[in-house]
Structure formats: C-alpha cells, structure tokens
Amino acid sequence: MVTQFLFATGIENSNPTIQAGKYRQDELEKCGHYQHWQTDFDLVEELGIRFLRYGPPIHTTFIGPGKYDWSFADLTFGELRKRDIVPIVDLCHFGVPDWIGNFQNPDFPALFAGYAHAFAKRFPWVQLYTPVNEMYICAEFSALYGWWNEQLRTDTAFVTALKHIVKANVLAMSAILDVRPDALFIQSESSEYFHAQNPAAIKPAEIRNAKRFLSLDLNYGRRVDSEMYEYLMDNGMTREEYHFFQGNNLKQYCIMGNDYYQTNEHRVAADGTTQASGEVFGYHVITRQYHDRYRLPVMHTETNLWQGPNGDEAVNWLWKEWANVLRVRNDGVPMVGFTWYSLTDQVDWDSALRENNGNVNPLGLCDLNRQIRPVGQAYKQLISDWKQVLPAQSVCLEVPIVMPSESNQSWAYQKQTDAKQARQNGANAVSKTNQTVD
C-alpha cells in the first residue's frame, strides 16, 4: 500500500449527444484514443504520472439491461494494471447509451448502478472511482441550457435530470462498495461562483450561488438551503425523493473533487443573465467555500488552458493553479491531489461540444500527434520536484491506495475485509438508532 499525493491527468471521454440525439460527440474517437491508446499510456508513464482519470465509453460498453461489451475495457484496463497505473474510473461522462435515451429517463439510476456493479466485479483491482462526472454541469447543459442529450430548457427538466443523475451516482457508489468495500469516490464537480454586477443583481447572484451546491448537497446528504428546497419541490422533486438523499449518505467514502477553469466564474446582471467574468477569486477562494460547506478531503480534479500565441500561457496557468493548491493546503484544507485535464488536446470544446466542427483545442499535456507540449514538460518537472516533498509534510496529504500490482496481496484482501466489516457495523449502528427514535 502506498500513501502519496495524487498527481493525475485524464483521457477525455465525454460522449453527449447533440442534434436531437442524432450525433454523439465521442471525445475518445475525436482525440484518437481508440487507435493510440497504448501510446497514450506510454505518455502517461513518460510524464511520471501514476494516476489517470479514465473510463470505458459507456455508449458502446453498456449495450442493454445487464448486457455489456467489455472488449475494449479488457484491453485498456488490463494494460493499466500491467503498467501499475492507478485509474480513477469515470463511468459516466455527460452521456448515456442510445437505448437509455437521456437523463430524463427515471430508469437511469438503477440501470447505471447495475453497470457500476458489473464493472467493479469485472475489474475488482480498481479502487478509485468517479461514477458520474460533473453532475451539476451534466444536468445544466442537458436540461437547462438545451445543449446536449435531451436538449431541454426548463427548471423542471433540470431538476429531473439532476435528481436522476445524483441518485445514479449514489446507487453506483453503494453498488461498487458491495464489491470493493475499500473503494474511494472522487467527485469531480465544477466549482462555480457568481458575482453580482450591481446592487440589483445581488438577489439573482445569491440564488445562483445557492444553486451551484445542489448536486453535492444531495450527493452528500446535506440539507439544502430553504430557498433551494422550495425550488426543488416546485420543479418536480417529491419529498420521498428528497428523503432518499438524506437517508443514503456515503460521504465517509468520498473525496471532494473540484474542477476549476477561467470560465468557472460569472458576472450576473439584474435580470439574472450571466456572462463570463474570467478569474476573479480563483481556485483558492472558491475551494475554501466548498470545503467549509462539506468538510471533506479535496482534490483539484480538472484544469487547463490553451497554449496561446506566446507558447507559455498554459505553463503559467499550471504554475498559478499549483500555487493555489499549495495556498489551500497551507490554510489547513486536506489537499490530496491535482490534475491537468487532459492528457491530449481535445476537440470542439470551444463550443462546449454543442457543434461538430472538428476544432482542435490545444490544451492537453500533449498534442494529437502525441508530442509533449511545454505544459507537459512543466508538469513532469513539477511532479518530479514535489512528489517526495508533500507526503512527508502532512498525513492529510496521504491517501491509502492499493496499487494494481498489490491487489492480490493478502494484506490487500484483509483491508477489504476490514472495510466491509466497518461498513456493516455502521449500518447496524444506524439501524439501532432508528429503532430507538421510533
């Protein structure tokens, strides 16, 4: 078992549908991963990275209720295990299989939990998961902005998508824990902030700043603010559905992953409309707000910036984000990891995947020719400089990880047995408490 800071990258596996469901934006395909997956794993190793946000394409793997095509996952995850690279498994990244439809489908949570359980049984050596990536953004872009999947633009559609997505995440965590009792879940969620443009904009900004917490409030079983409770009830959530989230709290198995980009902060006008504000507070201030609310260990799970005309823009952003991580850590927040997302350049994120233009976005550690960019070299150096320093300075920075190469060791099995017993003891304690209350 190793205890170390999680320096990570990711291989972009977004796959939402657009054009009324007629076209799927499969980033694994657009970025060439299906053809170059072995080279991509070579690059991960060359950069000195041991942790990789990665997942199988759900739309071609989950082919029907209880039916799975593991052929590509067997190849890629088998190779990750051989190389002793730790995957942080991203099971749902903005899209679902065609046969499920979209996030308005009430059957999605239970179906997805079955998929997560099947994956965990197929790959029992995997310990780290992000079951559903950026739950809030997924619901917002699909059902409030009308960009992806169901392409709806109503509060009712948004609440419907949100409750299904978060329930799917909670049920998936429970299903994975049934197979891998010492699993850890890293919620990759966008960390947002809304700035009032003038005094008349204070109220709409406050509403948006309450709304940004909804996915994590529900996921962690935290009571939402009174105004947000009314919003949820007014837009289709039932009291029974709300109580599900209060009664299925798996927070103790979680690390709060915060994603931060220059686009995460917004300027709000009096009529409630928003525009990008650029970086105002930055990762340090906003992450403190999220940590103060949830009191969980934190990982910086996504950031990037385009390599611009000077060639050093992304390198400077990497330095700035790392300085923010250290600032958060020095303030006493248990920071456990950092991620430049993603390994390679992406395609069509300049339109937030709303359009199929084939535009290459130069924001990866490597370009699509698999050549390392300056930011990749800078990240490699950063990891080399800091990987031995951080764990030695604070136990808060150490996460007990069973490396793939250690998963068959007797002590690793004992660790799972102990975790299973601890979970059962916790469930029994809750049951006794409820009986006493009754």
What keyword list fits this structure?
438 residues; alpha/beta; TIM Barrel; 8-stranded parallel beta barrel; 3-stranded mixed sheet; Glycosyl_Hydrolase_39; Glycoside hydrolase family 1; GH; hydrolase
- Rounded radius of gyration (Å): 21 Å
Which consecutive residue ranges, at least 5 long each, have pLDDT under 50?
A: none
- What is the overall pLDDT average? 94
Q: Total strand count, please?
A: 19
Class in CATH?
A: Alpha Beta
Please state roughly what percent of the residues sit in beta strands, choosing from under 5%, 5-15%, 15-25%, 25-35%, 35-45% or over 45%: 15-25%
CATH hierarchy: architecture? Alpha-Beta Barrel
CATH fold group: TIM Barrel
Would you kindly provide a written description of the structure presented here, covering whatever features stand out?
- With 438 residues, this protein is α/β, with parallel strands linked by helices.
- It has one domain: TIM Barrel.
- It has helices spanning 27-30, 33-46, 58-61, 71-83, 108-122, 135-143, 155-179, 202-211, 214-219, 226-234, 239-247, 282-294, 313-330, 374-386, 389-393, 410-437; strands at residues 2-4, 6-10, 17-18, 23-24, 51-54, 62-64, 67-68, 86-92, 128-132, 184-190, 193-196, 254-259, 265-268, 274-276, 298-302, 335-341, 346-347, 360-361, 399-401.
- Helix 2 runs parallel beside helix 4 (71-83), helix 5 (108-122) runs parallel beside helix 7 (155-179) and helix 12 packs parallel to helix 13 (313-330).
